[in-house]
Amino acid sequence: MNPKTLPTPLPEEAYAAYRGKWVAISADRTKIIAAADGLDALEDRLAAIGQDPEKVILDRVEDEDTLLGGAELL
Amino acid sequence: MLQFPYQPVPTTHAPPSIRFGGLVHWRPFVPLTVFGAHGRSRHFQRALLDPGADDTVLPMALVPRIGISLQPDSGHRLHWRGQLYALRFGDVDLELTEGGSLCRWTAMAAFSDASIAYCILGQRGCLEFFDATFRGAGRLAELAPNANFPGTIV
Question: What pTM value is reported for the model?
């Protein structure tokens, strides 16, 4: 799967209910098919619903206004 | 050369420093695929190009899921939101694609349990292999593999 060549990403509104969570987006980018607080839990959820984690797109939805700074990663 | 338009992240509480582009943070995200053992992989919609990060940092949760072998704990730590988190290192393949172009290489990445919102593509493991240009006015990140690039370019 090549995420860059997939259709237009979901609109921002689609993520509103998933603030602070990891989400799995369908390969055709039309819907969010699972969400969880952590990536590990999301993988478990995908397994539970029979979804191959290699065939979805993973993303994290920010839960607050965060100003990113690389200095913390030094 | 790979070109990635910055992506908007909406904000509900804009700092006064935002002058252009509306109530959003514009960030140089790229779609990233991480490969572990036996070709097992995960696709991430957004990884952050971060020249200020010394290392490439990925979620620790990936390690068992795609079969990454970690090196013994080297004692290195990541500082995130006031806390220190262990960093463990291991080899992965990373792949960036844009349009019809693809770059894939083997990198030693750091893995952490810190709740960083995105995979971080820092100097080691990623940006050291590219000549990167961040075009502020055009909100565009350009990555051209350099002479140190250790992988495959298609």
Answer: 0.89
